[in-house]
């Protein structure tokens, strides 16, 4: 690993472990990345990282996962100028087709004036939801995973997303 490699933090919030599982998978596939649970608060060394990969599930009807809800204000209060931020979200397209992975869009909105540059959007292909705050103009704001209905697609979705991120991760 060279000195120029981006330092990557993966920060997740997860209620029933699905987002945690994907976060761990990403962490295993992004060499040198560090993994944090937002339930422990915003990492004290967060400003040491170049790329923050933020992962959240969606609860209620389009609501932010609880641990993110408790801590998003602290993250949004930081100056993230010069940082890149990417997203992944866990949701249920069949049960919640109008709020699929909304948490991703909610976190992005909270960070709108943080100075961060948002990266990791990907073409929407092969999903079956109606509406999502994680979608902007036909593009997905990040990696969206549906463990409830399409767990067999998770591995490929992760691989395709990491491939699209490869220049940022090298
Ligand atoms: C009560 C309840 C509400 C939910 N609301 C949404 C929702 O609005 N949008 C969505 O995409 N998924 C929703 N889900 C699905 C979860 O986000 C999904 O199961 C996810 O994988 C959970 O991830 P976690 O275990 O990391 O918390 C809901 C699930 C439950 C049980």
TrEMBL record:
<protein>
    <recommendedName>
        <fullName>Flavodoxin</fullName>
    </recommendedName>
</protein>
<keyword id="KW-0249">Electron transport</keyword>
<comment type="function">
    <text>Low-potential electron donor to a number of redox enzymes.</text>
</comment>
<dbReference type="InterPro" id="IPR010086">
    <property type="entry name" value="Flavodoxin_lc"/>
</dbReference>
<feature type="domain" description="Flavodoxin-like">
    <location>
        <begin position="8"/>
        <end position="166"/>
    </location>
</feature>
<comment type="similarity">
    <text>Belongs to the flavodoxin family.</text>
</comment>
<dbReference type="InterPro" id="IPR050619">
    <property type="entry name" value="Flavodoxin"/>
</dbReference>
<keyword id="KW-0813">Transport</keyword>
<keyword id="KW-0288">FMN</keyword>
<dbReference type="InterPro" id="IPR008254">
    <property type="entry name" value="Flavodoxin/NO_synth"/>
</dbReference>
<dbReference type="Pfam" id="PF00258">
    <property type="entry name" value="Flavodoxin_1"/>
</dbReference>
<dbReference type="GO" id="GO:0010181">
    <property type="term" value="F:FMN binding"/>
</dbReference>
<keyword id="KW-0285">Flavoprotein</keyword>
<dbReference type="GO" id="GO:0009055">
    <property type="term" value="F:electron transfer activity"/>
</dbReference>
<dbReference type="InterPro" id="IPR029039">
    <property type="entry name" value="Flavoprotein-like_sf"/>
</dbReference>
